[in-house]
Amino acid sequence: MDKFCHSCAAPLNMPDFQGPAENYCKYCTDESGNLKPREEILNGVMAWLKSWSPDLDDERARTRAECYMKSMPAWAE
Length: 77
Known about the structure:
The chain is mainly alpha-helical. It is built from two helices and no strands.
């Protein structure tokens, strides 16, 4: 079974995403493997959403990113 980042769902079985933490990708952690702050991850998810949907405005990107992150184990409420 493939492993995915518990913060953003990046595929951890791909070397480009592997970082110092077992359950988080290199984009969601600092150099020590600690999970970055929620707002920093949210901004990254927003940028990712807008990269493949360039007409998406900031407000809608934020709403979608927040919904997406709620489905991730690290951010589930």
